[in-house]
Each structure stands twice: as C-alpha cells, then as structure tokens.
Write a structure and sequence with these properties.
Elements (H helix, E strand, L loop, with lengths): L8 E9 L5 E4 L6 E4 L7 H7 L7 E6 L13 E5 L14 E4 L7 E8 L3 E5 L9 E11 L6
Length: 148
C-alpha cells in the first residue's frame, strides 16, 4: 500500500476534540476531506500527522497550538464603546462580523463580550491558543501524476 507523502492527494475522515473530549469538528456524516499534502491548505500539524499513513489506517494525534492555529494574541482583542458599534446590529456573544481596518481587506472578528457600555471583538482564530486532538482515518491516497 502507498504511504502518504508530500504532494499526494489524500481523502480522510477526522474528528477533532478539545482536551475535555468536546468535539469541535468532524467530517463524519459528510464527504471525506480531500487535500494535497504540502499545499498548506490545512494546519501544519495536521499535514504532518498524515505523513506515512496508509489507506485504511486510523490514528490519534495531538497537535499543539503552535502547529495548529498559533497562539492567542491579546493585541488582537479590542474593546470598543457601544456608541462606536453599528446601531443596526445587536451584538451577541459568539457572533462573527467582518470588519475593515484602514484601507485593508475585511477580516473576521468574534464578539466575546457585549454589555450596555462596550463590545469586545477578538480577531484571533477561534481555535488559537488551543491544543487540538484528532482521530484521523486515511480513506485513499493518490500519487501525483507526472506529465511529459
């Protein structure tokens, strides 16, 4: 059987859990996740975890935050006065908004706190600063074709 190597197109099923066992994402119940190893479409630790696996093989792996979504950066959390918040939006914790900096492309922020005086916005990825646990099952491995 073919082991997963850099450049291979792989299909996998996975379940991601936090340390307390809470599932935060899973491909089960939908189509397998398909990606090419080495194209950096997924977090680095996930790509590293599938290297060397074979079709039909399942493994559990722990990916530390540095190899996942990186550390949580406090400087990406801002608190704004309620008067600065758009009046047509009722802020709710967990709500994701798109904001635009000075001449920048829009980027997502999550509301982490809202009261009568202020709203706290977090531009970190929701999984930043967290170590993640995955169960990974390789469904198929397709080697790249060489042309010419």
């Amino acid at each position: 059987m073919a082991e997963v190597q850099d450049g291979d197109n792989v299909k996998i099923h996975y379940t991601g859990k936090f340390d307390d066992g809470t599932v935060f994402d899973s491909s089960h119940g939908r189509e397998p996740l398909e990606f090419t190893v080495g194209e950096h479409a997924l977090i680095p630790g996930f790509e590293k975890a599938v290297l060397g696996m074979e079709p039909g093989q399942t493994k559990e792996t722990r990916i530390v935050s540095e190899d996942a979504y990186g550390p949580h950066h406090d400087n990406l959390v801002i608190r704004i006065g309620r008067e600065e918040f758009p009046p047509d939006i009722e802020p709710q914790v967990g709500q994701v908004l798109q904001i635009r900096g000075d001449g920048e492309h829009p980027f997502p922020v999550t509301i982490t706190h809202a009261d009568e005086q202020s709203v706290t916005l977090d531009a970190n990825h929701p999984l930043a600063g967290r170590d993640l646990n995955f169960e990974i099952e390789v469904i198929s491995v397709e080697k790249p074709t060489t042309e010419g």
